[in-house]
Amino acid sequence: MPSPLTNAAESGSVNAEAASARWASKRLSIDECREIYLMRERLEPLLLSMAMPTHTAESFAEFEASAARVEEAASRGEFLERDRDFHRALMAGPTTIRLQETVDHLWNLTRYYRRQLLAPNGVTRRSRREDIFAEHHMILKAVVDGDVESAEAMMALHIRHTRKLVEQHPEIFMHSGQGRSSQCRSRRLG
């Protein structure tokens, strides 16, 4: 079974240096990040619409519980993991050849920037968290109602809000305060 770091390397979120214990987290330019968010805005609603026919009353209850767990998260890491679980649950179900893998890959590439927005000294304020919760509930309502068009629109809007916030804060693309975008940052694993 491959290690989590091997899986991360295969997904493109980190680069492994052969025969060493060095892993380099892939960092994006603001233009790359914007493009990835634009792709997510279009692909995640598609995957959600494909998943909706497979949802059941039991899955609706799980979605509600998952949304509540996001709201109860105590740390930014916990918040990000629970948020991912919520999104993955909503989009689970359809058998796809490439779409689910592509959505997961794009999600992984933007995770660092969502984490920066949630940092204690980050730019996201409590009000954005409240917006995220409200958006989750609007997506969930459309899903439960079987309103594919509204669910797709709300999912796209939800992702767009984060993209706009990322674009408003180019400082999260700076590396070590050197005044330039970072394409890569290495760290040694112990």
TrEMBL record:
| Key word Hydrolase present | no
The protein depicted here goes by the name: GntR C-terminal domain-containing protein
Superkingdom of this protein's organism: Bacteria
Q: What is the lineage of its organism?
A: Bacteria, Bacillati, Actinomycetota, Actinomycetes, Micrococcales
Which residues belong to any copy of the GntR C-terminal domain? 35-161
What are the entry keywords?
DNA-binding, Transcription, Transcription regulation
Keyword Endoplasmic reticulum among record annotations: no
